[in-house]
Amino acid sequence: MALTFKGGIHVSEHKHTRKCAVEQMPAPKTVSIPMSQHIGAHADPCVKAGDIVDLGQVIGVVEGKLGCNVHSSVSGKVVKIDEKKANNGILIRNVIIENDGENRLHPDIKPWSKKLEDTTPDEIVEIVKNAGISGMGGATFPTYAKIQSALGKVEHIIINCAECEPFITANHRLLLENPDEVIGGLKILMHTFSLKEGIIAIEDNKRDAAKVLRERLGEDSKVKVCLLKTKYPQGDERQLIFALTGRKLAAGKLPADVGCCVFNAETCAAINRAFATGMPLTERIVTVDGDCIKNPKNLLVPLGTTYRDLITFCGGFSKTPNKIICGGPMMGVAQWDIDTAVTKGTSAVLALSRKFEHYFEQPSACIRCGRCVNNCPMRLMPSYLAMFSMQNKLDMAEEFSISSCIECGSCSYNCPGHVPIVQYIRATKVKINDRKRAMQAALEQSKLK
Amino acid sequence: MDNNQKNTNEITESEVKNTVPEASDEQETVDLNEFMPELLTVTPPPHIRAYDTTRTVMLDVCIALIPALIWGIFIFGYRALMHTAISIIFAVLAEFAYEKLLKKPVTVLDFSAVVTGMLLALNLPVTAPLWLGAVGSVFAIVVVKQLFGGIGKNFVNPALAARVFLFAWPTYMSIFTNPGAKLSTFAIGVPEGVDAVASATSLASLKNGVLPEGTSLADAIIGVENGCIGEVSALLLTAGFIYLLVRRVITWHIPVTFIGTVFVLSLIFPQSSPTLDFALWEIFSGGLFLGAIFMATDYSTSPITKRGRIIYGIGCGALTVLIRYFGGYPEGVSFSILIMNLLVWYIDRYTKPTRFGGGKVAKADK
């Protein structure tokens, strides 16, 4: 029986690209590489206009703070360093590189000199850090920091291939086509945490991938392939840990606190690549889909490629899109431009028509049907949270645990009253944080006096 | 507080304008160089959603009520249909007129007014004057629903509150007629010849401590008995219940605990013997099935959590038995639901599910 959690919803899958093998996208003429593709401090560019850079060369560094180095995804000449809005609306510096098409590899890139057995955990953290790897599922937390903070606490290591968002098939294709990379990455992580066992968690709509993995693993029982029930948000860390181990992650706690550590499948493959070839993270698999894309594809894309290039490579639009989404349709960010660049967290670029837009067909009002309460994977009461948000009752919102909301969208998805619940909750979370900060400031003021 | 509500409403309204498509969808291919990103819609996630709307939910309730309505027409004649039509028409008109008058968005297309009108009519005796349903519908929609903010904001069930309001005409509300009586379909007032066929309901005799005579339990289950238009056939109301369960419109919690509590309490404290017969008569006569399945489960006025729904159902059941035993009126379903309606917020607040993973939560002072 497939493992699962309580609550959640069944979303139409729309996984049209499940049969589309990953194609290498030729590097475009120019790439625009953002200096922040991760949570944490922005990287500072360490190249200047006119410099010649090689493929895999460090072009942005983060010193002393939480963050990831950024590497060039092509070889060529730095044209300029420009400020541009990233896919989340924040203004960040971009290094714009003109591709010379030579794919000249940087001389520093070579496989790790020692065998895995002789490598210490600290060395692995260093490899991951140098390769600039961040979580590739969407949250983009720097992976080295995750490993570092979890060292010595972990009993279960979980590779997350749930891929519960509709449309996206990037992880699915990775498992089918390159299972060894994922298994290799998991072995490295198991060694790092000195664990005997590892878990690869897959939703049961990807049984073919599980079969491939099991065949590849053969008698090797150290790695368990676990099937999960296909349900949204199965790929959420908390729900995943609960489904696999029965452990519940309390609010404000990290997976390591309950002895678990979760890595995305592609992150895992990137760790393997960094170890085996020394290659930093310069490309990733992106699902390009949606009913407005002429030829939906799975592409291996050099980071810094713009959405415009991706869409052109997929044959352009078949009709005018209403929305372009970076990430999945449940939690992805709607884009206002197509010249935004693919980053380490871009698992999909979707162009959707108005067919998917059922919002505001009618004046929206909560009819208290209770579906949101029933579906909430965090066991909150989203309808009340939305109501308190409308009435600006921040205390009540806190009493109803608004801070525990993971913003998965299960409530809004099923709301017959079309209440934009997640939007209300997000806005109120910001207000609550502002109030906390203001109170803190007032407190310090009074202390000074 | 009012200001804030207004502000959020304005946000949503401005978004409505943003989502209006300005580019035509018919174009075969789009030149990327001519594509204008300014036309893209930018909203927070999720970007896809289920097809269910308030309308589909309300339509499901209407569909679930239709078997009971058809049975009512079959048993009591076309006057039952007349009552239903009048109640629905006046409910919808009242909502339309109120919203037009106050320049609010018109919500009649969500079918909630239709459900209110239909439920009110099913709660009337067929002998009532035709204008009674119209008065009740207008009261339900304007006073109970719209004055408190429209759909989802009313704190008592509109149809039930209107029914209790109509007890201002107690005689009209309590003349019941035998099944198959020929009544004038179009008589505005109480139809002629009603006195000749009027009879006491089985609940009235249960209240006097005797099991009803001249009728059987099977008749009460199928619905060959006197009573309000929609309440007589427990069987067909249960069919509607199953439909609502299958369509996932309601959960089993309220109806099952409500009817179950009435049954158990009647078994423990029987007022006539044999005990089991008495308990069965208690649940199959009167408006218990209609109330438990369609009125107590009204979204706006019932708890939102499953634990809350169980508490609410038990509360409704216990109050129904208390009123039936000790009240001045033989039926207690409407009153018990209305009383429990008032407690919904407290039930919700204290049956709040523990958040995933637990942990302490700040408690609001106010």
Uncertain residue ranges of chain B: 1-27
* Secondary-structure element pattern of chain A, one letter each: EEEEEEEEHHEHHEHEHEHEEHEEEHHHHH
What oligomeric state do these chains adopt? Answer: heterodimer
Q: How many helix segments of chain B?
A: 17
Q: What would you say the CATH architecture of chain B is?
A: Orthogonal Bundle
Say how many strands of chain A there are: 17
The Cα radius of gyration of chain B reads: 24 Å
Q: If you had to describe this structure to a student in words, what would you say it looks like?
A:
- The complex is a heterodimer of chains A (about 450) and B (about 375).
- Chain A is an alpha/beta fold and about 450 residues long.
- Among the domains of chain A are: about 110-275, Rossmann fold; about 370-449.
- Helices cover about 30% and strands about 20% of the residues of chain A.
- Chain A contains 13 helices and 17 strands.
- In chain A, strands 1-14-13-17-15-16 form a 6-stranded mixed sheet. In chain A, strands 2-8-7-4 form a 4-stranded antiparallel sheet, with no helix packed on it.
- In chain A, a hairpin with a 5-residue loop joins β7 (about 75-85) and β8 (about 90-100).
- The radius of gyration of chain A is 22 Å and the shape is globular.
- The relative contact order of chain A is 0.14.
- Chain B has a single domain, classed as Ammonium transporter fold (Orthogonal Bundle).
- Chain B is mainly alpha-helical.
- The radius of gyration of chain B is 24 Å and the shape is globular.
- Chain B is about 55% helix and about 0% strand.
- Mean pLDDT of chain B is about 85; it is low at about 1-25.
- Chain B has helices at about 1-20, 55-75, 80-100, 110-120, 130-145, 160-165, 170-175, 195, 200-205, 215-220, 235-245, 255-270, 275-285, 290-295, 305-325, 335-340, 345-350.
- Classes of the chains: A alpha/beta (about 450), B mainly alpha (about 375).
- At the A-B interface, α8, β15, β16, α10 and α11 of A face α1 and α2 of B.
